[in-house]
TrEMBL record:
This is Phytanoyl-CoA hydroxylase-interacting protein-like C-terminal domain-containing protein. Pfam families: PHYHIP_C (PF19281). It comes from Balaenoptera physalus (Fin whale). One of its GO terms (cellular component) is cytoplasm. InterPro entries: PHYHIP/PHYHIPL, PHYIP/PHIPL_C. Residues 6-223 form the Phytanoyl-CoA hydroxylase-interacting protein-like C-terminal domain.
Length: 223
């Protein structure tokens, strides 16, 4: 496969996107994005970065041809909710402290949404990476050249629609969404609190390698 040393093109990513759409499942309502870290992380942000979480370069998890790995700078957020409560799960692989922010502060008509990757790590779960970038920002320019753009109001993964003058949010039920926001985020825009659940390290995706044999999330690329 000649792509071992080069990035997926938008054509390849569109093929991945189409595969991801097949298994995305029905949409569930949500209202917050959240990010789990250790207490030390948030202390450091307050002391050294004037209270603002800074974008960092994405690691090499996911597809080996992903054009965002090692290049795109952003901050990872989750938005998955528990099916029965409609709230974020109380467990996390990334630390006992959680920053929670209202969805409209990150995802709104002034942001663009891009599809970044689709992968699994030898498990039943599939992950979809999406990128939210403020319109005209450096992150937006980076994505525009490399990633398929999604219609924020109408796609299979993450939607923001206006209903009765309010923005309403939904996420796909059957994939785990990893959302990258490309600008700094001030902690004062949300809340930081300790979660009551467990730290499930087995669910961490840091530098996770994609299962190359999975028929669901791999595309065949020419020789």
């Amino acid at each position: 496969c000649f792509l071992l040393f080069s990035d997926y093109s938008k054509v390849h990513l569109t093929q991945l996107l189409e595969k991801a759409e097949v298994i995305a499942g029905r949409m569930l309502k949500f209202s917050v994005f959240y990010r789990n870290q250790h207490k030390e992380y948030f202390d450091y942000i307050r002391e050294h970065h004037g209270n603002a979480m800074q974008p960092s370069v994405k690691d090499n998890s996911g597809s080996h041809g992903s054009p965002i790995s090692g290049k795109l700078e952003g901050i990872f957020f989750s938005c998955s909710t528990e099916f029965n409560t409609g709230k974020p799960p109380q467990d996390s692989p990334y630390g006992r402290y959680r920053f929670e922010i209202a969805a409209e502060k990150l995802f709104n008509p002034n942001t663009n949404l891009y599809f970044g990757d689709f992968y699994c790590m030898y498990t039943a779960y599939h992950y979809v990476i999406l990128v939210i970038a403020p319109v005209g920002s450096p992150g937006d320019e980076f994505c525009k050249q490399r990633l398929p753009q999604l219609n924020s109001k109408d796609n299979k993964f993450l939607t923001c629609r206006e209903e009765d003058g309010m923005l309403v949010y939904h996420h796909a039920q059957d994939v785990i969404l990893e959302v990258i926001y490309t600008d700094p985020v001030d902690l004062s825009l949300g809340t930081v609190a300790e979660i009551t659940g467990h730290q499930l390290m087995s669910l961490s995706t840091a530098n996770a390698k994609k299962d190359p044999s999975c028929k669901t999330c791999n595309i065949s690329v020419g020789r």
